[in-house]
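User: Let's play a game. I give you a shape written as C-alpha cells, and you guess the letters that built it. Ready? Here's round one.
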C-alpha cells in the first residue's frame, strides 16, 4: 500500500529512516545462545527492549510453557532482566 492509497501513512524522510534503523540495529548473538527459540526471544527483546510473556507469545507465536524456560535462561545469562512482570533487554 502506498502513501497515495492510504493518507494515514506518513512518509519518513530518508535521514530519519537511517536514524531509526541505526537505533534498532542488532548486535551479534552471544555464542552462549544455542537454541533457535532462545535466539528468537533474545532478538525480539533486543529490538523491542522490553516485553511481557503475553507480548512474546502473541508476536512470536510461542507457547507460554516454552517461553518461561527460555526467559529464565536469558535471565540466568544476565542478557535479560525480569522486572515488574516484564523482561528487559540488557545490552552486553
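Assistant: Ready! My guess for every position:
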Amino acid at each position: 500500500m502506498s502513501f497515495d492509497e492510504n493518507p494515514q501513512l506518513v512518509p519518513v524522510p530518508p535521514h530519519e529512516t537511517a536514524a531509526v534503523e541505526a537505533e534498532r540495529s542488532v548486535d551479534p548473538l552471544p555464542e552462549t545462545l544455542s537454541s533457535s527459540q532462545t535466539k528468537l526471544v533474545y532478538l525480539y527483546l533486543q529490538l523491542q527492549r522490553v516485553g511481557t510473556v503475553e507480548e512474546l507469545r502473541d508476536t512470536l507465536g510461542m507457547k507460554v510453557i516454552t517461553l518461561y524456560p527460555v526467559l529464565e535462561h536469558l535471565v540466568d545469562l544476565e542478557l535479560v532482566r525480569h522486572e515488574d512482570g516484564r523482561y528487559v533487554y540488557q545490552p552486553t
